[in-house]
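pasting for ref
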Amino acid sequence: MSGLLKEQNNVPAHPPGCKLNVSDMMEKHSLQIYQICTEPVFISQKSMTWRWILAGLTIYMIDLCFRLFRRRCHVKLLGVQVYECQLICLKLLKEGFNAQPGQYVYLQCPHISFLEWHPFSISQCPTADDPSLTIHLRTNGDWSEYLKHYLLSGNDEKREDIQECSKRNVIYLSSSSINKRLFVDGPYSSCFEDVLRYSVSICIAGGIGFTPFASILRYLSIDVKHIRKMKRLHFFWICREVEVFKCFSKVLCEMFEMVWRKNHPDKFELHLYLTKKESWDTIKNILQDSFPFLKPRIQFGRPQWDVLFEQWANTYKKIDVGLFCCGPQRLNHEIKLLNR
């Protein structure tokens, strides 16, 4: 900036209002007297911009160095779980890692790329009893496909064995998988942390968008005091495949068991919607008898959002209601328009 801004260096010799050619001006304005002065001299102005950006730049550099150091901390892979619906569950252990429900992290696999960091919601936060964190991701791109093959492949395995292993719902715990290199950066805050701040919250998830709410439901199933402060939690989950429900069925059942055990069954309202038509025998075979709370709450189709929003507006007229949605862009856009 110092080269762009100029300032006059000889103001006493050339004050504002003086004239250089006095003879011409005297002919036109004989009654006025003008001061004779020299040519103005301009020099580059000293830049003071650094004073304004120094504090912010210093804080940014300190934060950048801290994040670079934190990213390179060792992360231990405890387990890999592959589901039939193209979902992968990673159980990781990072020393000194703490996170709040609703936060997310960045995941990097140096074997694939040293520059790519992908954000994923934390589906299970570390606790005093279990210091590990859990991440669920869907394999719908090149990076996630490479990650699945890298995690499930051993040094002496064939590609056919990897494909056969990925088709089954298995927990893969071999020495070759545990020694895989992964880096985690975070945690970072998100808007889903505010679910616990409202007395009435409406949570809408689409497909794998359930992951940020999974950590919140796990936290509520453990912290009984917080569920007592809440008036009601409305939860809607829309999926195409019933296998996705099974991936997080344990979390939902634990939440149901807790509210029934503490005599608060009206504080948690769950609605599950299947967009793909399935027979009840197929649903029963997938969910089996170990998840009795889920089968009665499964419906086909999609929710009638206009009717539901009108009902909520009449019920909670004088209450601040938190609305949270995580899912495909089409679902987020639809909920955003109805919330206006």
